[in-house]
C-alpha cells in the first residue's frame, strides 16, 4: 500500500490528487490510502475534515467537454482514510508521519512557504505545533530522522516554478537557522526527494461539506529525476517541466489575461470566459492575439506542434458550458498578471524579431497605467 500524507483540504486537491488516488485504486493500480491534514483553524470548515474521511466517500462532479463531447458525471472518492486538523492533532500527525507515511503531497496556497513568528523555536520541541507549513514539515522530518526512519518523496503542488527546489531550500535554511544537527541536514540532502511538479485542473465550485465540481481535463506533471507517487493517466513524469510551464503560462493564463483586459474596459460584471467567447468579436480578438502573436513565438522557440495541440485543448476548456469562470475573478491582481504572463512572454521571445503589437499594447498600457 502507498500511504500518502496530504497537507491541504482544498476543493482543488479533493478533485485532483485525492480523486487520482481513488481512480488508481479502482483501476487496480493501488492500493493508495490518503491521510489529509487541515492546517488552518477555520471553524467554518470544521465539518470538512470529518466529511473527507467518511467511509462512504465524497462526490466529485466532472462537467465539461472532452474530445468534443459533453461530459457530466460524478465519482464518489473513497481514497481518503483519515483526516487530521491542526494544531489539535499535532501529536497524532507526528506518529503518522514517522510510521505511516510513504509520500507527502502539499498544496498550501500562495503564501504557504512563509515562516511564521515562533516557528524556529517550535521545530525541535515535539510538544509545539509550528504555525507555518515549512516549519511543520521540518519538525516532522526531524522526528522521522530521530526515529531512524527512511527518507521519502515530497510532491509540492503549489503554483511556484521549481516548487520542489524552492521548498527544499526553505527547509534546509530553516534547519540551519534552528540549529538542527548537521547529520539531519545530510539526511535531508541524501534521502528526502523534493520533486518539482506542475498541476492543472479548473475546479469551479465546492460541494458541501466535502466535494467539488471540476472540468474533465487534469494534469499532474512531475519533473525528472523522480517517480510518480502512484500510476494514473493524468500523472506524467517529464525530463523538463519548463515547456509545460510555458504552455500553461503563455497560452492558457495569457489568454485569460487578454480577456480580462478587454473586460476591464467595461463589460458585464458577471461575464464568464465561456460567455465571452460565445460573442464573435471577443472570440475573434482572442484568436487574433493567439494565432497572430503567441503561436509564432512558440514556433520560434521550437514548440510549434505542442503549442497548437495545447491551444486546441485550451479552447475546448474555455468553451466548457458548465464552468462559471468569471472574468471579474480572473482580473484580480491584473497588473501583476500582465507582467508575468504577457511581459514574461515578450521577454522569452525577444530574440526572435517578431512583431507583437497587440500584446505590446496591453503590456505598455498597463505599465503606463501603474506609473
UniProtKB/TrEMBL annotation:
Q: Which residues belong to any copy of the Mannitol dehydrogenase N-terminal domain? A: 3-223
Q: Any keyword Disulfide bond?
A: no
The answer to keyword Oxidoreductase applying to this record is: yes
**What keywords were assigned to this record?**
Oxidoreductase
Enumerate the GO terms in the molecular function aspect. Answer: oxidoreductase activity
Output the PANTHER family linked to this UniProt entry.
ALTRONATE OXIDOREDUCTASE-RELATED, MANNITOL-1-PHOSPHATE 5-DEHYDROGENASE
Q: What is this protein called?
A: D-mannonate oxidoreductase
Amino acid at each position: 500500500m502507498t500511504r500518502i500524507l496530504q497537507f491541504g483540504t482544498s476543493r482543488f486537491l479533493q478533485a485532483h490528487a485525492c480523486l487520482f488516488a481513488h481512480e488508481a485504486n479502482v483501476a487496480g493500480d493501488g492500493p493508495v490510502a490518503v491521510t489529509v491534514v487541515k492546517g488552518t483553524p477555520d471553524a467554518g470548515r470544521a465539518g470538512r475534515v470529518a466529511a473527507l474521511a467518511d467511509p462512504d466517500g465524497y462526490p466529485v462532479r466532472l462537467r465539461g467537454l472532452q474530445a468534443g463531447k459533453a461530459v457530466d458525471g460524478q465519482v464518489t472518492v473513497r481514497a481518503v482514510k483519515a483526516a487530521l486538523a491542526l494544531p489539535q492533532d499535532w501529536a497524532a500527525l507526528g506518529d503518522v508521519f514517522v510510521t505511516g507515511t510513504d509520500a507527502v503531497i502539499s498544496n498550501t496556497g500562495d503564501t504557504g512557504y512563509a515562516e511564521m513568528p515562533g516557528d524556529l523555536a517550535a521545530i525541535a520541541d515535539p510538544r509545539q505545533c509550528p504555525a507555518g507549513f515549512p516549519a511543520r514539515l521540518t519538525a516532522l522530518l526531524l522526528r522521522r530522522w530521530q526515529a531512524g526512519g527512511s527518507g521519502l518523496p515530497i510532491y509540492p503542488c503549489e503554483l511556484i516554478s521549481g516548487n520542489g527546489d524552492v521548498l527544499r531550500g526553505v527547509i534546509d535554511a530553516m534547519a540551519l537557522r534552528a540549529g538542527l544537527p548537521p547529520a539531519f541536514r545530510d539526511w535531508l540532502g541524501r534521502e528526502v526527494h523534493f520533486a518539482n511538479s506542475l498541476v492543472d485542473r479548473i475546479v469551479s465550485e465546492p460541494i458541501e461539506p466535502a466535494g467539488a465540481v471540476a472540468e474533465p481535463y487534469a494534469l499532474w506533471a512531475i519533473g525528472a529525476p523522480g517517480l510518480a507517487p502512484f500510476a494514473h493517466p493524468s500523472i506524467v513524469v517529464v525530463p523538463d517541466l519548463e515547456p509545460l510551464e510555458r504552455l500553461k503560462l503563455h497560452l492558457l493564463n495569457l489568454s485569460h489575461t487578454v480577456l480580462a483586459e478587454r473586460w476591464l474596459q467595461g463589460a458585464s460584471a458577471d461575464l464568464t470566459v465561456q460567455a465571452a467567447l460565445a460573442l464573435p468579436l471577443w472570440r475573434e480578438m482572442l484568436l487574433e492575439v493567439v494565432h497572430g502573436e503567441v503561436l509564432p513565438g512558440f514556433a520560434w522557440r521550437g514548440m510549434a506542434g505542442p503549442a497548437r495541440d495545447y491551444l486546441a485543448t485550451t479552447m475546448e476548456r474555455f468553451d466548457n458550458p458548465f464552468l462559471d469562470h468569471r472574468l471579474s475573478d480572473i482580473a484580480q491582481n491584473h497588473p501583476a498578471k500582465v507582467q508575468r504572463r504577457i511581459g514574461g512572454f515578450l521577454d522569452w521571445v525577444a530574440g526572435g524579431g517578431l512583431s507583437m503589437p497587440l500584446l505590446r499594447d496591453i503590456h505598455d498600457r498597463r505599465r503606463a497605467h501603474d506609473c
